[in-house]
Amino acid sequence: MRPFVRLGSTVGVLALVIAASACTKKEETPAGGASALTAAQVKVALVPGGAHPYFQPWKDAGGKAKTDFAFGDVTFNETAGWDQTKQNDVLTSLAAQGYNAFGIFGVAPESINSTFENLKKQGFHVGSLASCPAGDKNLADFCLSTDVQEAAYKAAKAAVEAMGGQGNLVHLTGNKVDSNTQRRIAGVSKAVDETGGKVKLLDTITDIDKDLQTAQKAVADLLAAKGSQVNAIVTTAYNPAVAAAGGVKQAKLPIKVIAIDDDPTIIAGIKAGEVAATVLQNPVGQAYVGSYALVKLSEGCTMATPGVIIDSGSFVVTTANVATYDADRQAKTDSLKSDFDSKYLTCAK
Amino acid sequence: MKQEDTTPEQPPPARLPLWANPRIGLVVLLIALIALFTTLRPAFLNTQLTLVPMQADISVYAVVGLSQLAVLSLGHMNMAVGRMAAMSAFASGLLHDRLDAPLILALAGGLAMGALLGALAGLIIAHTGVNSFVVTLALDFALIGLVSLLYATFTDGVAFNGLPAGMSALRTDTFADYCAGDVCGPEIPLLAPIALIAVLVVGLLFRWSRTGREVLMAGSNAKAAQLSGIPVRLRTIQAHALSGLLAGLAGFLLSANNGSFSAGVGDGFLLPSFLAPVLGGTLLVGGAVSVLGTVLGTAITQVIYKGLNLLQFQVDELKLYIGLVLLAALSLDRVRHVLAERRGVPA
Predict the structure, then answer these.
(1) What is the pLDDT of residues B316-327, one digit of tens each?
(2) Key word Signal present in the record (chain A) (predicted)?
(3) Domains of chain A, first to last
(4) Residue extents of the structural domains in chain B
(5) Closest alpha carbon within chain A to B54
(6) Best interface-test mutation with A: which of B208, B261, B267 has the largest number of A CBs within 10 A?
(7) Which residues of chain A from 117 to 136 reach within 8 Å of chain B, CB to CB?
(8) What ipTM score was computed for the predicted complex, to two decimals?
(9) Mean pLDDT to the nearest integer, B172-176
(10) Does domain B20-163+187-340 have CATH number 1.10.3470?
(11) Which of A228, B81, B187, B294 has its CA 20 to 30 A from that of B340?
């Protein structure tokens, strides 16, 4: 390197070091957007972690919430592509477009608190929907989600019952490096442990909720390799549930399938007696009541317990209640809304 | 950056006109895209919500691009770039979690892990002669399992709780938060200078250092390089170690940006790692790299992504338009290249 360049760089670095050492951190100013808004000024963004059938009811539920609670606007954006960095990008872009209240299903529960913190720092209200952050801290205003460990426990209990209290069980689920999957695995293990060894967890197959094809291939492989040994399959993710219901029906094996959610093929399977049970979640309630709470917070209400975790409900559906389950779910949604009014929110009269 | 011999009979090479310089083309394209998106959505110039997060993303993905560039210089590939980042983030997290290591030590541990993994890949490639694609793909598969196992063993889930002191500031602060008297710094995130140092070091390495030039020679023609006395095996290992080290740095920057050392770090690195260098003019066959081009390629990709996000395209449209804009960008560069060739200007 030329001597002048070397001299110049040294002087430059020295100047930077001297300037940096004279710096002090500016005091934090309180978030600017925290002042109360009117309902018409509230723009709610519902942002799932990526495209997935589970979230499709959010679109209509958000639209219904907008009509019922007369707030400014609602959008549904599923472009995050299951990448936390992209989801952060989507969220800041929506904020730049004027959206000021966010209902978020975080891609990475272990780092979503940082995203919530960033948004709240800018004065926005945030609800964690359908999934809570990992660990014991939730930095969103509230988390309205299925208690996934409890739902998986209920599903596994239903499976144990369907297989007559003994035999071999297989668990099909989603992304292994996701703390929600770890909670589901723990829920299933708990139910299996309670049988005192009568039910054996033959296999836990993860990472097959990416799309239906992946799940179908995994189910076909499982049935080909161990089909005769398996007495029941419990699924705690959407695509594996659809794939297991279809795969077992096609293979004509006497395996009891406990599904999750209410894809039309699963509900049809329950009606036909091919699927033993399914555990329903409440995506409509999450988006509808979540939007309501965000509007109330924007209008100046506060959370009685900031970061409170609220179970949005899970329901075991069998042939006995397949015709009436939606009424139960609607009732849960209504009770969630009144709970927000009476318990979770503190509003000035 | 290929050095070309000129014989006495040849006329001196024509001075490169500005329009024929590929980097200038990329700058023009970048400015045009920024102007386009700003016209369509003035919020594109929102400092807090657009410009600062975009700079942080560019910082992370420029280093991801450099990580791939380090082995593209040899005509090799690193398919394990994401998983090397994940392993580095794990090493940093473990050092902090178990030994309470401060930020600098956690970073150093992560970089060492990345460099070691890269060197291992380089060692296998150099000594077995197996294609780098195959070796790094196999390494990637092995590391997917290992990362998952390690997190399951050492954490209660898929991430370490807690970060070294100062790491949160890297995510949340800009230089504007630091003032000397009334004079505060610019709205540039604290991550940016770390990436800038990586860019400068890699740039200087390939431009000025003997090692860097020899790596390029080995990439251009390994046999000729070997016959000229260049230790090709050693250079292969070094280039892969550099790639691993940069992947580790990218993993650290992403962990800082997203707020945790987690198993998911690096999941989305593979495609951007190729996109930025290739868009910036680095050859897939080796022998020529463009560090500045890689930075510009990253910036263009992030600007397109941010702009399309602001236009609120839905998921399928977004992918379609990203593909179309990138195709248009590459085609424009090709047109510029052909025009330059016709006029006898090397571009």
Answers:
(1) 777 787 778 778
(2) yes
(3) 38-146+283-313+326-346 (3.40.50.2300), 148-280 (3.40.50.2300)
(4) 20-163+187-340
(5) A89
(6) B267
(7) 117-118, 121-122, 134-135
(8) 0.81
(9) 89
(10) yes
(11) B294
